[in-house]
Amino acid sequence: MQNEANQPEEQLNQGEISDYSTGQTIFKATHYKVNRYYMAFIAGVLLLAVLKITRAIIVPIVISFFLVMLLMPVVRFLTKYKVPLFIAVIISMIVLIAFIGVFGMLFVFSLSSLQESIPKYSAKFESFMTSIFTTLKEQGIEMNYQILLEQVSLKQIAAIVGKSMMSFLALLSNLTIIFFITLLTLLESRRFKEKTEAAYGGKNSAFAGTIKIVGREIQRYIFLKTVISLATGLCVWIFLAVVGVKFALLWGILTFLLNYIPNIGSIIAGVPPLVMTMLQFEHPLVYAVIVLIGLLTIQIVIGNLTDPKVMGKSLNISTPVVFIAMIFWGWMWGIVGMFLSVPLLVCVKAILAHSFSLKPVNVLLEG
Q: Which of 86, 168, 251, 345 has a CA between 20 and 30 Å from the CA of residue 211?
């Protein structure tokens, strides 16, 4: 009897199932397991193609999802003190809109001021770059620096600044959709929890427990990462303002934004204030060293010490995996994809960590 019980599984591995009462074959699939993996691969490729083609629709939805995760702790805190859910959601949304509104106005105003000031520093920038190329030439490194100056001119930087402003304004045009999706999802959050528990066997079911743990990990990462990025940007702003670097507020905002981009975000954020320091002061090397040391100190203290201790196991991901994810999602969804790459990776890792069959993949992603 035990041999007969094991027989269907053996025949399934061989790609054949038979009816043992008649001896007739009722299912036959050559290399069934291999075909299943092929189908999964094809489905994955098609899914990525859909995400690429429909990014104008998907990106606002994904941003809304992460905003919901960010605001849920606030909503829970208010409802804990007997504030009705609707009122708690409205308060959370008002705070979010106020923050983004003030943040957006400061960002656009700072970018506009920078763009207006670029012609003032253009000649000094070209002189600075010429001195660098002359020094390299004296060291035996020959290059056509005139062509390089045309490519690395402040006019090119002004064009990049203009494109950044247009991209930011384009993102603002989707805010209405994002806010409505976020609002409705927050209002339905309690019913979603009830529906999940009812559909999968109550609050003690394995699936409901997994959803709860995964959601908690994602919320923790997004909330803490936002707080840490805000603290980093604030420290950079105060430090640069004390030193006297112009557009310190813009560099602080830029640091806050780019801190969401893993690995290279903080490096990119440090370049503009250093360039401005070299152009602004009469003795630029001394000030550049001070600014460099200050920025490195802030990034080391917050980025390398505070960040890992506060984040805990939320971001136990291999650095190459993070970098590859950033490149991939940047290709998929542009600059927004680069910002969302790590939160998306945290979501995937949290799901893999609580899936028994996919735990090996989770181990490969760990740092």
A: 86
> How does pLDDT run across 310-334, given as a tens digit for each residue?
555 455 677 788 888 888 888 888 8
273 touches 258 (CB < 8 A): no
Q: Note the pTM of the prediction, 2 decimals.
A: 0.72
Q: Tens digits of per-residue pLDDT, 7-59?
A: 444 444 444 444 455 555 444 444 455 566 677 778 878 888 888 888 888 88
End-to-end Cα, the chain, rounded Å? 48
The DSSP call for residue 257 is: H
Q: What percent of the chain has pLDDT over 70?
A: 69
* 157 in Cβ contact with 103 (< 8 Å): no
- Whole-angstrom distance, CA of residue 3 vs CA of residue 7: 6
H-helix segments, the chain? 2-14, 32-53, 55-80, 85-138, 145-151, 154-173, 175-187, 189-199, 206-243, 248-258, 265-280, 284-298, 307-311, 319-333, 335-353, 359-365
Q: Angle at Cα 219 formed by Cα 213 and Cα 222, nearest 5°? A: 140
Who contacts 128 (Cβ-Cβ below 8 Å, separation ≥6)?
Answer: 278, 279
